[in-house]
Model the fold of this input.
Amino acid sequence: MKKEHEILFEPFKIGTVMIKNRFVLEPMEGTNMIDCLPIFKIGEDIYDYYVERAKNHVGLIIPGMVTLRSMVGKQWLYEQKEIFEGLKPLLAEIHSYGAKVFLQIGAGWGRTFTMPLALKELYEKEKETGQKSMFDWDNLLVAPSELPNRWLPEIIHRPLTEGEILEYVDAYGKTAKLCMETGFDGVEVHAVHEGYLLDQFTTKYTNRRTDQYGGTFDNRYRFAKEVVEEIKRQCGDTFPVSLRYSVTSKTIGFGIGAVYGEKFTEAGRDLEEGLKAAKYLQDAGYDADITEVAQAMDNNGSVIGYVISVTSHEAYAGDLSLSVGILNDGTVKGVEMLSISETAGLGMKADESEFKDQFKDKNVEKFTYTKNGEKGDDKIDAISGATITTNAVTNAVDSALVYFQNTFQNELGGMINE
Done:
């Protein structure tokens, strides 16, 4: 095995939960432990699917997203105690192989709700005749503000009231508590990501509210912040809460996404706000961020490198987060701390230029720290009295480099050779 792959087999922590390795089965539609379309039920054919992956050493399993409300019947997920009880044998068997499970729970689609033709015809017939079906249209067709549907703009979504937002916040807390009592190891909040309902609250072009959930940065991210605060209130600080999060929106406007390499003006969350929001939400209580890697572009819209954010769980006083800028040729252009709370006068020196600039403008496969003044582009002088912090930062930068090398460098090398 190549040395750069060894880190994949090392354990890491999300909050207080130790994950045995870095192999994570991400959520995908059709792999739901709990289905919500159209009513809540245990997903079909999931038992063997997840047990087989736990047997084959997956460290963390995150099943496909389940919404807080069902499509029909006005049911809340936290009311489905029998369904959660039915999942206990599956969770026990997964745990017997050393794997952990986080349930991904979501507020819903908002304006991205997909309405097939047959459903659209049913909705229009109901509007015309006043006859009611089993579908809960009033709670399906919602958004932060009055907005057109992403796929059928003639259908208009109504804005959630402040009271309804608080109902969702409360439901997140109650559902997370039920997850904890059932045996799930944590929950993942879906999602400040890809234009779903929670994400629509965070972006200016979809949030036109004038109350405490719209306008300023703090107000636009208030919904997502209150969600994690309520989960921690009901479950305690040690129950892990991760967040499905996109650093940038890659959006030109309503229904118009940016194409790879295209020069455009971001209508949603740009990189500057994305990094600010990641720290803001982590400070609010989210234990881990699953993020996208951001492209760095020149004025002509050409990709010149990447900004890769990393959270280290090896620091002295807890987690630290940093971003690493890497050019296409592998040169590190800089390291910036996003979150650090090490000992003043010791580990906090990791956020000073004298230490961070040691990584700058270096093109190496990986860095190692030294305590004896050894020289070399790949050598980092350790902070006196803060070896643990030095190790955490160095390993975090190396993780970003490994990700870049394995994900982008081979592809870029082929393009250059052509």
